[in-house]
Amino acid sequence: MALASARPVSQITVAELADRVGVTRATFYNRYSTPLDPLIQVLHDDLERGHRREEELRARGGHSDRELLRLATAEVADHVERFLDVYRNSLADPADSGVYEALVRHFGDCTLAFLARGEQPGRPGADRKVVARFMAHGFAGAVKAWLDDPSVTKDDLVDAAVACAPAWWTSGPAPDAASQQRRSP
Question: Which CATH number fits domain 35-174: 1.10.3470, 1.10.357, 2.60.120, 2.70.50?
Answer without folding.
Answer: 1.10.357
